[in-house]
Amino acid sequence: MPDGLDRVGAKPRLLEREGELRCLGAAIAGAKAGRGAVVALEGSAGIGKTRLLRAAMELAAESGVAVVSARGGQMETEFAFGVARQLFEPVLTGADNGERELLLEGAAAPSAWLLGGGRADRLGEPVGGGDRSFATLHGLYGLTAKLAARAPLMIVVDDAHWADVPSLRFLGYLARRVDGLPVLLTVAVRPEDPGAHGLLLTELVAGPEVEIVRLGLFTLDAVRTLLQDAFAAVPLELGFVRGCWTMTGGNPFLVTQLIGALRARGAQPTSAAVEQVGEMGLETVSRWTNLRLAGLPPSATALAAAVAVLGDGADVVLTARLAGLDPPSCDEAVDGLVSISILRVADGLAFTHPLVRWAIYAGLPPRRRAREHREAARLLWHAGGAVEHVASHLLAAAPAGDGEVVDILIDAARSATRKGAPDLAVRYLKRALAESAHDTSRPELLRELGTAEQNAGQFEAAAENLRRALECTDDMATKIEIAYRLRTALVWSDRAREVAPALDGLIAEATERDSEGALLLEAAVAGALQVDLSTPRGLRDRVRQVASPAFAGEPVPPHISSLAAVEALFANEPAARVLRLAEEAVRSWYQAPEFARGPIKAQLFVALILAESHSLARRLLDDEVEDARRHGSAAQFLNAAVLRSTLFHRVGMLAEAEADARAALEAAHLHPGTGPSGSRPPAHSLHAPMAVAVLVDTMIERGKTGDAERLLTETGLADADSPLLLFSFLIDARARLRAAQGRTAETTNELLALGARMEGAVLTPAVVPWRSQAALALAGTDADAARRLAREELELARVFGAPGTLGVALRAAALTGAPDERVDLLRESVAVLEDSQARLEWARSLVELGASLRRRGRRSEARTALESGMDGAWSCGATALAQRASEELRAGGARPRRLALTGVDALTGAERGVAGLAAQGLTNRQIAEALVISLHTVETHLRHVFHKLDITSRKQLAEHLDGSHEPASP
Description:
Blueprint: H1 18-32, E1 37-42, H2 49-62, E2 66-71, H3 82-93, H4 97-103, H5 112-115, H6 133-150, E3 153-158, H7 165-175, E4 183-189, H8 198-205, E5 210-214, H9 220-230, H10 238-248, H11 252-264, H12 271-277, H13 285-293, H14 298-310, H15 316-323, H16 327-339, E6 343-345, E7 349-351, H17 354-362, H18 366-382, H19 387-395, H20 403-418, H21 422-435, H22 442-455, H23 459-471, H24 476-492, H25 499-513, H26 515-531, H27 537-551, H28 558-570, H29 575-588, H30 597-610, H31 614-631, H32 634-650, H33 654-668, H34 688-701, H35 705-714, H36 727-740, H37 744-758, H38 770-778, H39 783-800, H40 803-816, H41 819-834, H42 839-855, H43 859-876, H44 879-891, H45 909-919, H46 924-931, H47 935-949, H48 957-960
Parallel strand pairs: 1-4, 1-5, 2-3, 3-4
Antiparallel strand pairs: 6-7
């Protein structure tokens, strides 16, 4: 709204905003040129943000830029994706059926759950009944990219401090991705009023990609211009102008309110009149509003209160009913309120400024507000209003033991979950629990609440509510499901040790009534004991006992075979046996109850990756990531992306590993939660350590140790710890970083402490080769200890038999053992790794072999090994290792070629992804939709690919590429 004046009906002029408008104009021009940008307008209430936004929108439209806009509202903060729906629903509503179908295809399809139409009915339910937060955000971003592909796009969100949480997450998600899209995202916020979701808002406007435009107060000259417009027929005294400026502080809206108050009193524009109005600030808007209302009949005051309760856009008929007015009285009240600039009529009834609504709403006694909201909910419900709108009023109403209210809130919670807003579902269900007056409804409510909290990453709260639900539920099948979900919540809140005490009583009960369910819960308890390194040795025997039928070769359900596969892995049994058990689970995991499939798949993926069945693991994880991208929950995507990043790292595909790990961290960030042991990493927090471990390792391989250190600090994981197994990967990565930084003592201490923790729980070096890492760190200070650790790992690796694990152990034994054995052991390491998919480890062993040969004066053999190692390192993206090989070659008198700047090895991960899809025959637009990037970005990547490969047509791509990987994109 324009400096307050257009809110009172006058034709506004844009005063003292020329510089800000130029800044927005430059951003609009940048978007037209394909340079995406984010601009945040900051200013206090009434400063003129809305007016400036309107001017910018007019400028964009004149420039041929499409504009979509939305506005946050105090009554819509609990309406899932309310702001996002304001942005996109008008576009889809105005499109014909064919165009709408096209807009909602491909990457945009999941947004159809939220916006309706498209192929939402074909997408299916989230796996395991989870939320759709990941898929919905992905779909909204895809829709944005599609709209921007048709024409440059300006997205405007006014009063973003009142946006709902899911919409704020979408805006933050979009803000980090506009670079390369012809999109300008512009938000207006009050820095002094961050709303209920201040952290998300701060993250949105504080990002490095955001340009902040701060609006200042008006000067004396601008206030004089406004007063001259208002009192054109009367000469203005300087004292009057200065008094108005001083009293309002130069706030445009307050100036207009002062003008309205003076007019309501029939006052002349004199200094004495200003003094009569009295001192004011934002809090006196209420007094001035009441002053204007005093001249209208009581029906006007009642109608204004009803609109304040219902919120902007209130239906006239519904408002009249809430106010208790007949149609003629309502019409009279509306006309009166419009005439004094309290209301405006546009798509329903709305206030001329949010501060006016605030003034009237705040003036209602709290109990009356609660009653009015309950009545508003009743009227909306019986008028067929959206369930979320009804629920938002119920949140503001006092509980009254109404069963219908409970049903409405449950419906709203389920709707919010379907749309990808599990945190709102939690709020609705908590309110339903407070409303419930009958114990019969509480078990189901507690179960739904616990599940919603789990979906939202609120694992501590989920565990408590699921525990309460379990205590008051009688049906055995339901109890088994609740117990299984409780197990997950306890593990993910770093309380795995509590799983057995929580479930053992039910297992005993279920043994008599549901033996299959009892076995499922036994496997759940065993799995929790398995991943908690603090589990006492005596309790670990229970895991072996549960898995024993699988070890005996008996037919078992998938939750037993997957458990047995991990148990065999940890016990360092031969990799072939681990893979046999894991493959049995692969063949039958779909037979498990849906709520149990996630943990089962996680177990079998871990077994396949660490026992080095990389091809099968890759195929299954590719399917899992694609399924999550189509219709999965954030948790499903996180599991798959984190594990696939680990797989890629182990086979030396560093670019792909980094892409998946970053995508997983981004998805984890969507639901802020509480991390373990006092740390606070992103939600679904226990995925973060593994993703960060992969990123740290990747940065080390590229020689970017400073970046790795910053990442640990920024994610809060520099010192984070937990007895859960997956933290072992993080600790190992931190130790590698300390070694790369030359901090040998810290490296040794961290690795030996990790080894002590894993003793008796995880024997195999396939999980974390802590012995060989510690041996290399100790080699310079305690050769005997180093040799002992390396030999111990080598013996274990020979038993395990997987080539990647064995090759690493052989290399460590060579580097810490007797000098006369070094070359032979390194040759064996190279030979073992050559037939494996662990290409980076193979390259590392080649470089060590070459270095050892050079020191023995065998330059020709050294050169061959070093050149092969350098090529292998470069193909993996391990620039630090490639540089070391180059230096060894120079030390041996060779003149190594320059590190590749062209060819397939020079392609980045993003370029490989685009090139791979192009080689499969996809058009640029299809690639953009598949990867959810702009058409411009696809064209740029392909231009770089053609240059690096020295080709001129897409037909030549397949000849140069062995295959491609489509990186994950949350």
